[in-house]
Amino acid sequence: MTLGRRRKLAICGLGAVLALTATACLQDPNPRGGAGAGGLDGFVDGGSADGDGVVTILGAFGGQEEAAFVESLAAFEEESGIDVQYTADTDFTTTILARVSSGDSPDIGLFPQPGGLLDLADRGNVQPIDTFLDYDSLDKTLIPGFLDSARLSGRVYGAPMRMAVKSVVWYPKEAYEAGGWNTEPATIQELADVAEEIKDSGAAPWCMGWESDQATGWVGTDWIEEYVLRLHGPEVYDEWVNHEIPFDDERIVEAFEEFGKLAKGDGNVLGGERGILNTGFADAMTPAFREEPRCYLHRQGNFATGFYPDEVQADLDNQVGIFVFPPFDGGYQGQPILGGGDLAALFNGNDEEAMEVMRFLASDEFGAEWAATGGWLSPHRTFDADNYPDETTRQIAEIASEADVFRYDASDLMPKEVGSGTFWTSMVQWMDGSKTSQEAAADIENSWPSEDE
Fold first, then answer.
1. Which residues contact 6 (CB under 8 A, 6 or more apart)?
2. Where are the domains of the chain?
């Protein structure tokens, strides 16, 4: 799901061991100012800001999430004297573009995907983050690779303030452990062995559902992204996202083929190919919670728990188990994580109070109150995990923290004609058998907009 077209990025070494340092080499070597990255005291200066005392923020989330966000700012507002005014807009993509175009931008925008942010940065409407905070200090606390999602021509324009982790495999804890199956497979090949053992027990190994009305197919794009990362690593992944290699490159086609062994293998997924396409993504794991589960494994993001039965959500630690979707033996030598998140971007670079708020949003001090409500993850490895409400969430945070590299959902970074267009529809055609891996990838490649569109 994408908000806009991503321009080609200037990428340098992004290997796993260099992830924390290589990103810094891309930042402007002569940043225009900065700020320390410490605790709350490091972001509050006792009223030295010289604006009107009000900072406006526009974002896409409302309801309980809005309430938790506002609560997470309360102590900061009291200590700084800054009044943060948040507005929720479900049509954020359209609204932010209209407001910027009319000269009525908020001080800060919270972008759920990087595409629209990078479009506005390309027009010169967004301030690079190195103008108001210390890039290296921020980079050291974040999940490796997170800042790359908001990079344009060597500078970063968005500061992560919420993370989603997608590379998680869920299972019904009691039934799965009673089966004696491996809870920490080291490779995709070992995971395939687990699937065979589950099939021998008479159940389907995998729970999977792609149906999502007009967005049907997006779940499939996540699976391809997982395989591209594990087969060929972050550098090829970045080249693919930025269209430096064609979508139908043989390595991408290979990812389709390898995923096909899991998704289309006889008896691997409850309901087979037809079941995948007709089962709502939110209902995919429901059969796993029966007294005798009909399927066991569900690869989905940390938000999946919101779709599980109420009794499961009320006793999460005892009801579900998790492990990270593992590497591919013979592929990328490291543990990548696929995910997403919200990026805070500064429009008003002349307002010290807005910069003060940005520094707080970008810090590992932000979000404790939101984390306690559940469903929110900090993108910082240094965030206090005791703020999370359950052990399952702490495990997911640990999975992200221990990853060698983080990569943002590719379909969120690709042009909208592809990311939320042909990539979705071609995944459906690939799954129903009307297109081969090569044909699906070629059709997506042919839909990629030219540079002058």
1. 114, 115, 118, 119, 241, 242, 413, 414, 415
2. 32-165+336-410, 168-334+412-447
